[in-house]
């Protein structure tokens, strides 16, 4: 807990809650609390953040109101403000009833895992399509700038990625495919760990606070890096559900570029968290490198279309 020495000084409407419970999950620098109202038993999530992100939070609030109009099963930002002690800010989010999908997915059979991924992909598609800002945006220059900046830091980092030169060559050889791309609102951290599932197998989306604007295919890099590690069937279903089986020819190539960038510089982040996260990160990097056969292919070797038939038969 970063801020919670005195709950009454940071939790808004402190006396209105019958229950306040710290949520020890995730790698965010925010503190998160589950709260339940005394009056109507409604449940919420409260995030406590640095006051330095107040402007960002205002923009998030305005953005989330636009998302609400899409009527998607995405956690809502109800209000935000300065904590009672004036040192931090709070964000009050709606509660999505259910359980963390990451911990539940393997209790379902393979066909069900695929179907759940398909639902998640459909939600993500509707989020992207409902918030397109530009139809033909050239991401090449911005990606090159980010590459140069991250490479400078990577060169100074003691933790190197195996086959880093080969990965960089793949990026440079394929970066031109990032021109004339849609520019839209992204969840920013869309993976199986930020999804909720209930007893009816309905899927809900949480932690939209990492949102940003960019290429919709970039959103799939966490699928290849995190979700696939838990369930390949889920991961395949998310791809098929996003496109409703009609996968464009450029999808896997573009996604592979974003994935390659992600794994090449991932240790810059994980090494700052600690040795255990760095070790997990290096294992994920090697897994993804093998999935793409050393980036000799654009399509990960676990993806196949047999799941389409299984999904139709199981529906």
TrEMBL record:
<dbReference type="Pfam" id="PF01636">
    <property type="entry name" value="APH"/>
</dbReference>
<keyword id="KW-0808">Transferase</keyword>
<dbReference type="GO" id="GO:0016740">
    <property type="term" value="F:transferase activity"/>
</dbReference>
<protein>
    <submittedName>
        <fullName>Phosphotransferase</fullName>
    </submittedName>
</protein>
<dbReference type="InterPro" id="IPR002575">
    <property type="entry name" value="Aminoglycoside_PTrfase"/>
</dbReference>
<dbReference type="InterPro" id="IPR011009">
    <property type="entry name" value="Kinase-like_dom_sf"/>
</dbReference>
<feature type="domain" description="Aminoglycoside phosphotransferase">
    <location>
        <begin position="20"/>
        <end position="246"/>
    </location>
</feature>
């Amino acid at each position: 807990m970063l801020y919670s020495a005195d709950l009454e000084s940071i939790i808004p409407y402190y006396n209105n809650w019958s229950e306040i419970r710290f949520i020890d999950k995730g790698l965010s620098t925010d503190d998160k609390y589950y709260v339940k109202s005394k009056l109507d038993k409604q449940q919420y999530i409260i995030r406590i953040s640095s006051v330095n992100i107040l402007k960002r939070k205002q923009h998030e609030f305005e953005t989330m109101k636009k998302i609400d109009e899409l009527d998607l099963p995405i956690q809502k930002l109800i209000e935000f403000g300065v904590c009672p002690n004036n040192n931090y800010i709070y964000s009050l989010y709606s509660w999505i009833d259910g359980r963390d999908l990451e911990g539940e997915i393997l209790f379902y059979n393979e066909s069900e895992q695929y179907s759940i991924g398909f639902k998640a992909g459909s939600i993500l598609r509707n989020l992207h399509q409902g918030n397109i800002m530009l139809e033909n945006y050239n991401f090449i220059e911005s990606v090159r700038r980010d590459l140069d900046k991250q490479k400078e830091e990577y060169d100074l980092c003691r933790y190197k990625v195996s086959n880093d030169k080969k990965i960089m060559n793949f990026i440079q050889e394929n970066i031109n495919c990032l021109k004339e791309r849609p520019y839209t609102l992204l969840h920013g951290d869309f993976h199986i760990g930020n999804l909720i599932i209930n007893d009816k197998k309905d899927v809900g989306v949480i932690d939209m606070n990492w949102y940003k604007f960019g290429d919709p295919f970039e959103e799939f890099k966490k699928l290849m890096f995190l979700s696939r590690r838990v369930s390949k069937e889920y991961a395949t279903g998310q791809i098929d559900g996003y496109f409703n089986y009609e996968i464009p020819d450029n999808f896997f190539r573009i996604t592979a570029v974003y994935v390659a960038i992600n794994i090449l510089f991932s240790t810059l982040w994980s090494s700052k968290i600690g040795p255990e996260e760095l070790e997990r990160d290096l294992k994920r990097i090697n897994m993804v490198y093998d999935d793409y056969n050393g980036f000799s292919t654009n399509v990960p070797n676990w993806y196949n279309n047999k799941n389409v038939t299984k999904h139709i038969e199981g529906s």
